[in-house]
Amino acid sequence: MSTTIKRIANWFYHADHWCRTDLIQRHIVDEREYMARWITYMDRSSGRLGRKRIGYESYFVSRTLSPHLERSLGCDALFSFRYKNQIKILCIESKRPDFRGRDDWDNIDMTKSTPASRFTKQIRKQQVLANQGVLVYEMFLNDEQRLQTRPGYDKLGSSFVRRGIALDHGQINIDPNPRAWKWEDADTIVRKQSIESPVDIKYLVEMILSCQIGNRLNLDSFDGDSQFVFEDGGNTFNLPVPDLKTILENQSFGQKIERFIEQTGISQIGFFQTESETFWKSDNSSPII
Q1: Tell me, what's the pLDDT at 49?
Q2: Which of 67, 145, 149, 243 matches a 20 to 30 Å C-alpha distance to 255?
Q3: Contact indicator for 284, 211 with CB cutoff of 8 Å
């Protein structure tokens, strides 16, 4: 694995580590703040257009949305990794289980005809992403003291669980006897993931960039820009994927990304781009669902 890939993966991980420190010290109160600060830390530590000296560029978009805005795709963060006219996409939904037993991090959505846990509904919505080859992971924040973390959890940052594990467990939280997720449920799937393979953000980024996981997705061209189109039945959501070498001259990008955020509720987005074949030379990529 190249030094560049390791540096990028460590960059993600350090930002998550800093956010966990802020969460422990109560400088962050919920998932939305955590994700926004994660993007902010990455943006500040990289420079607005990334670290060209080690072979890649980056650009970040962070918005604060109403908590009542529906997340059409069941995620709150998206990372795009681009090489030429292909990308890999990682989508994340963050949750903060309360290990002190108050269990108020999930509830039953009674506004629909079929009551179900809100988290379970979000996991179901993510099927649109999984169907199109997007990597989807559930991210569990942890405000326990670092290095004193319970078994199965990352010692310094957040713990990640692939969507398939969460989806299987979430089947217990649907009609006719829906119930909200409790911290024990999060504990169960994090431990199950750790048995399969412990996952933190460093591991995920390393595996994506070294082509061990994830699908290479082709970009479409529309209105002079590259984009990836998410299709959900009759609905389409167009993710603009700008050429980061000319992002400052791209006057239409701002309007397009704002439309995507409003449509999907994905409010934290990171774009990464490289011209190096180091990231795309392997043929080992495969979907993880």
Answers
A1: 42
A2: 67
A3: yes
d(CA 170, CA 174): 8
Please calculate the CA angle 243-43-208 and round it to the nearest 5 degrees.
65
> Residues 6 or more apart from 101 whose CB is under 8 A from it?
183
Q: What is the rounded CA–CA span in Å between residue 156 and residue 284?
A: 29
Residue 137 pairs in a beta bridge with 92, 162
Evaluate whether residue 147 is within a structural domain. Answer: yes
Helix (H, G, I), strand (E, B) or coil at 90: strand
The pTM of this model reads 0.91
Residue given tokens 């010290």 in the structure block = 25
* Contact present, 13 and 158 (Cβ < 8 Å): no
pLDDT above 60 (res 48)? no
Residues composing the chain = 289
The per-residue pLDDT of the chain, averaged, comes to 85
Pick the closest to residue 190 from 155, 157, 156, 154 (CA basis). 154
Split into its structural domains, the chain has a count of 1
Q: How many beta carbons lie within 10 A of that of residue 252, not counting itself?
A: 12
Domain of residue 152: give its range. 3-278
57-62 and 235-240 as β-strands: parallel, antiparallel, unpaired?
unpaired
Omega prior to 97 cis, within 30 of 0? no
284 within domain boundaries = no
- Say which amino acid occupies 122: Q
263 is a domain residue: yes
Q: What percent of the chain has pLDDT over 70?
A: 85
Amino acid, single-letter form, for residue 82: R
